[in-house]
Amino acid sequence: MRLLLVALLSGTAAMTHTPSANAFELFGFKLFGSDEEDDDVVDPLHYTVTLTVEGGDEKLKDDLDEASSLVQDVERPVSGSLGLLAKARSDREQLVAALYAQARYDGVVQIAIAGQSLDDIAPDADFGAGPVPVTITIDPGAVFTLDEIKLEGDAANLMPAEFGLIPGGNAGSAAILRAEAEIVRRLKEDGRPLAQVTGRDVVADHETATLDVTLAVEAGPIAGYGPTTVSGAETMDPGFTAYVTGLKEGRQYSPREVDEARDRLLALGVFSSVTVSQGTALDANGQIPIEVEVTERKLRYYGVGATYSNTEGLGIEGYWGHRNLFGRGETLRIEGSIGRIGDDDVSDVSKLNYNAAILFEKPAVVGPDSKFFSRFRTVYEHPDAYDRFSTEVAAGLSYQFTRTQSASVEASLEYEDVTDFFHPDGQRHLIASLPTQYVFDNRDNKLDPKRGFRALAFAEPAHDFLTGATFVKLRGELSAYRAIDDAQRFVLAGRVATGSIFGASLEQIPADRRFYVGGGGSVRGYEYQGIGPKDPDGNPIGGRSYMELSTELRVQVTETIGIVPFIDAGAVSEDEFLGSAGFKVGAGVGLRYLMPFGPLRIDAAVPLNPGPDDPDFGIYAGVGQAF
Fold first, then answer.
1. Of 124, 119, 167, 173, nearest in space to 146 by CA
2. What pLDDT is stored for residue 344 in this prediction?
3. Please, which of 13, 47, 64, 624 could form a disulfide with 447 given CB 3.0 to 4.6 Å?
């Protein structure tokens, strides 16, 4: 039996104070342990709490448990009897608000501390040493629905139904506030930055359990952008920060552009937080001032990582970077890695894999949405398919056309010496290429998407000055995601990728530029590069065309645990088109631990139609979904 095991651990490292030896944090999020908060509370008092909802609605009880700070913070002490009283009074308001959000306007929340009603307890009461029993009893009342709805003022010509306000529909306070925000947004999209709700009249009829809503709205004048002011920038040039927003003075105001300005500033990587807000009044020129408030991240960062496979050995990597080299968002990153440590096929250090690179980027070179990038990279690697030494210099430009569309083009010159099945004594190449890429991506979350899709088109014309070969490499990918339930706990995900190389024979194309399939990022259950044509010794030789297919059902079992059954398939052909190339299929199941920054992933897969050299199963780990 052969085991294929891959693990990944990476991140940034920094010198930080550890509040407790029993606490563990990953990427700034505490996974378990205590921060010894008792030390920060004066006269700590512990309590117990029981929350009961009349009628036995378990879903409503879960929601109210989430809304109750007494329930959520039960493990944390309060500051004496006075602190418990204050927390209980605040909690009652929170629970009433939670009932209103679910359109329960005649609900009643009763809280008792040590058997006494909250309203009967003296302000200077002393509950002793604790733990103090607290009971919360909730009569949720009836669910109200909307009845009469009126929009007045500058919103009188709008239809309430467009914003979810429908007679007989959801009367929850959250739905009403959401409708108000959408109405104001609609008016702001017409270039009216001062649009606002000036009046709200909500009348509840407890006999009929209905709600009448009247909203008065003032649109305000159409205006353009005024000057953009920046605060909080220390090492970053404030004028350049204002330029990157793209909010050109005098152009008509758009809330969508304001949102995009914030996204653009965050994408620089220099700021940990960005707030882009408008003024409360027009300036003397009839324009709306824009205010940008930023908080800068640490300028320098570094990180380490490791991978392991019983077929590829141990790999280690490290990097160092600077986020704002010259004060205008320029980034410099130096990285390196060593692989195949401990691999049985590696006889000495000359057969290890080495990779080193220097990367430089400069944003906003031909407009706020552009970025210049360059790299110098040296690689010395020995996968099963070939041995390669290469040195590359490249420079290019990327452009973000919209939130969902981007493109890039670069010029690359690479010298390499490659030994493979076709060239056992090695062959030298000097390749000039123009990699060009277009991406459409409207996924709602990059690491754990629930809806949307991502499409990529890639073309790379290349010429080898030493062999005379000219070829074009084409590649395309499409990934789609769709939640099949309202709670988005069941998500169907699919991916297809394909490519072809035209203009040269297989042996004329350098081995590292051919297509390979198999492994954790491809067809799980098979070795890395393990699918496709092989030489007489069983080593992959790559191909001129390929296709990969993947389907997953992502099931969120709890708030933190997910299960993912999946099927992958792939094929590689020596020809420009797949033709009769046989597909290899793998299937398995994955475990997801859902974190705020994305899921931690472990997948186990078996090959369904394995060959004699294929492993019995594979295990893979990483951060984020498989695709």
1. 167
2. 66
3. 624
Sorted by sequence, the CB contacts under 8 Å of residue 185 that are 6+ apart come out as: 255
Q: Are residues 506 and 418 in the same domain?
A: yes
Of the residues 139, 167, 184, which one is the last residue of a structural domain? 139
The average pLDDT across 237-260 equals 95
Tens of pLDDT, residue by residue over 59-76, are 999 999 999 999 999 999
Kindly report, residue by residue over 361-415, the tens digit of the pLDDT.
Answer: 999 999 999 999 999 999 999 888 899 999 999 999 999 999 899 999 999 999 9
167 and 306 together in one domain:
no
Dihedral class, residue 456 (left if φ above 0, else alpha if ψ from -120 to 50, else beta)? beta
Which structure tokens are listed for 152? 């007045």
- Are 196 and 290 part of one and the same domain? no
Q: Where are the alpha helices (DSSP H) in 211-354?
A: 238-245, 255-267
Cα separation, 377 vs 357, whole angstroms: 4
What is the chain's length? 627
Domain membership of residue 155 (yes or no) is yes
Q: Do residues 500 and 544 lie in contact, with contact meaning Cβ atoms separated by under 8 Å?
A: yes
3-class secondary-structure state, position 480: strand
- The pLDDT of 417-444, averaged and rounded, is 95
The whole-angstrom separation of Cα 289 and Cα 277 is 9
At 50 the three-state DSSP class reads strand
Alpha carbon distance 163, 180 (integer Å): 8
Alpha helices in 198-294 (DSSP H): 238-245, 255-267
Structure token pair of residue 133: 């029993």
CA distances from 11 to 339, 397, 467, 623 (A): 18, 27, 42, 11
pLDDT category of residue 17 using cuts at 50, 70 and 90:
very low
Q: What does the alpha-carbon distance between residue 123 and residue 144 come to, in Å, rounded to a whole number? A: 35
The answer to whether residue 34 sits within a structural domain is: no
The answer to whether residues 71 and 158 belong to one domain is no
Based on the domain organization, do 331 and 395 belong to the same domain? yes
Q: CA-CA distance, 235 to 324, in Å (whole number)?
A: 8
380 and 472 co-located in one domain: yes
Measure Cα distances from 103 to 21, 66, 97, 175 in Å.
46, 17, 10, 9
Q: Hey, which residues does 476 pair with through a beta bridge? A: 457, 498
Domain that holds residue 156: 145-218
